[in-house]
Write a structure and sequence with these properties.
The protein is mainly alpha-helical. It contains six helices and two strands. The chain has helices at 5-10, 20-43, 45-48, 52-84, 90-119, 131-153; strands spanning 163-164, 170-172. Helix 2 (20-43) packs antiparallel against helix 4 and helix 5 (90-119) runs antiparallel to helix 6 (131-153). The longest helix has 33 residues, at 52-84.
Length: 195
Amino acid sequence: VQSWTPQLVTTPLKQTPPNKLTEMLWGTINCIPTAVMAMVLYEAHVFQFTDTNGQVAWLVATVASFAVIFAINSSIHSYLVVKYAKKDKVAVSVGLYYMSNALGRLMGTIGSGLLFTYVGGDQGAYAGTDGTMGLAACFLAGTFSSVLAVVITAFIEDQDVGLKCGPCLTCVGGNNDGDGGDGDNDVEAEPVASK
């Protein structure tokens, strides 16, 4: 999915090359499956009783939709890391990105394990804790993490081209001077090919 994102998603939506607004849009969309699943786990009838087929269907649908959205988001991240890197520090920036990504996955794994274990009420010595509430807490924590990422991304200065959601819909207008938003028209010149 990541490799197809430019051809199947961002180009048809006129979001190529992506900017911070594209990332904020897809980061917000990334919150939807996890928020819905947290609410379903807390409130839905299918998780109050032992309807295993319904539970599996909800979990598979949620995880599959999250995986597709996350892959699109990850493709946009990969482009933006290179775009925002200083020209002489691209390798360092990409390395730092992947190191941070791995550390985030480790902390998320440990954190979700703690949430799953300790959020649900104790069901007795042989039953353990309430897995439904633990799983709901994990999905809710994932939602809050995605919201936090969107908020942090809002502080990046990169909205000069705005955000489009297709050929006819401009969600956010951009600066048309091509300078990154500071108004001084310092557009870089194209390199001249030598003969």
